Every structure is written in C-alpha cells, then in structure tokens.
Amino acid sequence: VQLVESGGGLVQPGGSLRLSCAASGFTFSTHSMTWGRQVPGKDIEWVATIDNTGRNKIYRDSVKGRFTVSRDNAKNTMYLELNSLKTEDTAMYYCQLSNNRGQGTQVTVSE
Predict the structure, then answer these.
(1) pLDDT at 31
(2) Which long-range contacts (CB under 8 A, 24 or more apart) does 7-12 make?
C-alpha cells in the first residue's frame, strides 16, 4: 500500500485548498478511504470517510458544510476540498486505509 498526499499549504482564514491522495499497491476501487489530521502532541483525528463507490460520505461535525471528500476510481485518487478554512483546521492531513497512511500534507491557516 502506498498513499501520497499533496495540495497542502498556507492559506488565510476563509480560504480554500484541495488536497489529493494518490493510491497504489491495492485495489483502490474496492476500499473505503479516510482523511485524518493531526496536530503536534495530539492523536490523529478522523475528518471524513468515503465509501468505495463515492456515493456515501461522512464527516466530523466541525467540518460539515465546509469540507467535501470525493474520489476518482479511474485515477486511484481521493480528494478533500477544504473551504471556509479556520485557524483550528491547521494540521498535518493524512490519507488513510486501515492502519496505513501517507506522509501527510501540511495545512496551515493563518493571517
């Protein structure tokens, strides 16, 4: 399993980013996928999960209405669109499959 996140960066409050997760080494189209995030000194927290079809999605309450998870099974890629970003969204964002995760992509929300 290989998961490679990209798309993070520095953005002002209220801004937007689109994260990508390129997956390989397994049959992407048959697995639900998850986004998580972590700040230093804290455990990783669940953000969103999308089922293998892309039709069913669930989000943590604090990001509902602001974040959108999607996937393109033809490209073996999952996305997370982050809108109306808040300073508390600052974290390393990870793509996860069971106990596997990538190296992460840093999202920093600051003036």
Answers:
(1) 98
(2) 7/105, 8/93, 8/105, 8/106, 8/107, 8/108, 9/106, 9/107, 9/108, 10/108, 10/110, 11/85, 11/107, 11/108, 11/109, 12/109, 12/110, 12/111
